[in-house]
User: Fold this.
Amino acid sequence: MLRPCRMKDYFDLWILLTEDVLETAELRRAVETTFDRRKLAMPSTLPSGLSDAFVQDAAKQR
Assistant:
């Protein structure tokens, strides 16, 4: 089962990264800092929104 995700978040990140507003190293630091502050372990797998199953989900094609 795919977990819900906010498509707007993926779109926002894509724009920021492709328009050179945000560098990948800066994004990585921000994500790592967020996980550290919340005392959570960094996931070792891709988020469901970046998986092949998500991309092929007909409900997400709208």
